[in-house]
Specification:
Elements lengths: L38 H19 L4 E2 L2 E2 L1 E4 L4 E4 L2 E3 L4 H22 L2 H5 L2 H17 L2 H9 L4 H26 L5 H9 L5 H21 L1 H7 L2 H4 L10 E4 L1 H4 L24 H4 L20 H13 L6 E4 L1 H6 L3 H8 L2 H22 L4 E7 L6 E2 L4 E12 L5 E8 L5 E3 L15 E6 L4 E11 L6 E11 L5 E10 L3
Antiparallel strand pairs: 1-2, 3-4, 4-5, 6-7, 8-10, 9-10, 10-14, 11-13, 11-15, 12-14, 15-16
Helix pairs in contact: 1-4, 2-16, 4-6, 4-8, 6-8
Length: about 500
């Protein structure tokens, strides 16, 4: 037997020299958006100012003696200016979320990712962080050279300054966000006196570093890979949806030329292939390749293309907000607007109008107090020493206003029904009688009241008898009626 180890034959497939091997995992190239000024850029910065003034300013507004907009999770109350909501008012939050979702569908059907390009927090904070970056590091070309350069004291200073400002702004953003859930003035005082709870520190840091990471580093990757809206937006588009569009028939074939040369003599389209539309794109796409899910409809490419057309002496609108039908059929602006009001848009608008009207009516007619009535399970019904039949109830009265309120309690349904309660003070506002009592509930509080109902023995037969509790706000006259039963046991 041979001592040589057994060898295994391996077949080798020769790859032709002209074969290109592509990696499935390409390294992410950093996008350096070029600064641009124009119509859509101005509107984008208007929305940046509006959203940020609202976000950072509203928590500091006061309404009476409290914060105007506050979602107080500890007290389980939501303050929205004059309105005070409780966990039982979850239906209002649900309605608001549904209206917001349908509004997003409506805007998308009309003008594509209009929300993404002008109002989305990711877009807004990316714009702010890019502005800080450009002020510290310079324009696009300067930033690219700085990143490619080796480490130096100048580079270290600029990068450190930029990240310091980013972190400061991001942490202030996290602080403001937490200020919607913890009274912001108290929160500020706690930070000044270094008396902040661990949970508040955690959430300020969490939202602060989330802003820092998303707007400073991830940027367009959030829109391209993390945001689900980019994935299902195509289901809401049609050929009459306004979106940033490149007029291929007019622009092609593209090619460079002097502004003094007639493009027709060179058999070229209006596009001079300057690639500025790619350089200003915050997601790094080429709009000339057609509609892409990465496009956020910010209009930056339309602004820079209009500037180029002005310099070349060509007509504006090579890249513009238009529809697919308008491009292919050469529609005028009036024809485009006529096709905006199509069935799907009208249906969205009708449903939103109906929901908003229903929500407004519900809030308008909403009773500012609630009553829950529960029978005492420990004492269902019993005979008392004074020859009466007693039932015990627990009333939970919630005052939804921000003022102390007096409520009148009246029970009906059985003759000679008497009300007794140790929880109702004898110095209350209304007159007292056997059938009518009043009680005080402090502002935005819930009060539990034990109520004993008694009737003389023998006036009704044994069994279950319907009764009705009527609670009246003595200030406004509003009433809440709740039904229950009075049990009469057998002798």
């Amino acid at each position: 037997m041979s001592d040589k180890p057994a060898t295994k034959k391996v077949s080798v497939t020769k790859i032709p020299l002209d074969t290109v091997v592509a990696s499935l995992y390409e390294a992410q190239q950093k996008v350096y958006p070029r600064s641009i000024f124009g119509y859509f850029t101005k509107w984008r910065w208007v929305m940046v100012w509006i959203t940020q003034i609202f976000f950072y300013g509203v928590p500091w507004l006061e309404w009476g003696h409290r914060q105007a907009l506050l979602f107080d999770l500890n007290a389980k109350r939501f303050y929205i200016f004059k309105l005070v909501l409780y966990p039982q008012d979850l239906i209002y939050l649900t309605a608001i979320l549904i209206i917001s979702a349908l509004s997003l569908f409506l805007f998308t059907a009309i003008a594509g990712r209009l929300w993404c390009g002008f109002t989305c927090p990711q877009t807004v904070y990316t714009e702010i962080f890019l502005w800080i970056e450009s002020k510290i590091e310079g324009d696009r070309a300067t930033r690219m050279r700085l990143d490619d350069a080796g480490l130096s004291s100048k580079k270290l200073f600029k990068k450190s300054t930029k990240h310091f400002l980013w972190l400061t702004f991001a942490l202030w953003t996290g602080f403001t966000f937490v200020g919607y859930f913890t009274p912001i003035r108290e929160l500020f005082s706690e930070f000044v006196h270094l008396d902040v709870s661990p949970w508040e520190i955690f959430w300020v840091g969490f939202y602060g570093f989330a802003t820092y990471g998303n707007a400073g580093f991830l940027r367009e990757q959030v829109c391209k890979y993390m945001c689900p809206y980019a994935r299902f937006q195509s289901a809401m588009f049609d050929d009459d949806t306004l979106m940033v569009t490149y007029n291929e028939a007019r622009g092609e074939p593209r090619g460079g030329r002097s502004s003094k040369v007639d493009s027709k003599s060179l058999a070229l389209g209006s596009c001079i292939d300057c690639s500025l539309c790619v350089q200003v794109c915050p997601t790094g796409i080429d709009i000339r390749d057609g509609l892409q899910y990465e496009c956020i409809n910010c209009g930056a490419c339309a602004d820079v293309c209009d500037n180029v057309m002005d310099k070349m002496g060509y007509e504006r609108g090579l890249i513009k907000f238009s529809t697919q039908n308008a491009i292919t059929k050469n529609w005028t602006r009036q024809q485009i607007l006529q096709h905006v009001l199509r069935p799907r848009v009208l249906i969205y608008a009708a449903v939103i109008t109906l929901l908003v009207s229903a929500l407004a009516a519900s809030l308008w007619f909403r009773t500012p107090f609630r009553v829950n009535i529960m029978r005492d399970r420990g004492v269902m019904a019993r005979f008392t020493d004074d020859g009466k039949i007693e039932n015990v109830y627990r009333l939970q009265i919630m005052n939804g206003t921000e003022n102390a309120q007096h409520y009148s309690l009246h029970v009906s349904g059985i003759k000679d029904l008497e009300i007794e309660s140790e929880d109702i003070n004898q110095d209350e506002k209304a007159e007292h009688s056997l059938h009518n009592r009043s009680l005080l509930v402090n502002s935005t509080e819930s009060r539990s009241v034990i109520v004993d109902l008694k009737i003389p023995e023998g006036i009704v037969e044994h069994g279950s008898h319907k009764i009705e509790f009527e609670i009246t706000d003595l200030e406004s006259g509003e009433k809440v009626e709740e039904k229950s039963v009075f049990l009469v046991p057998r002798d």
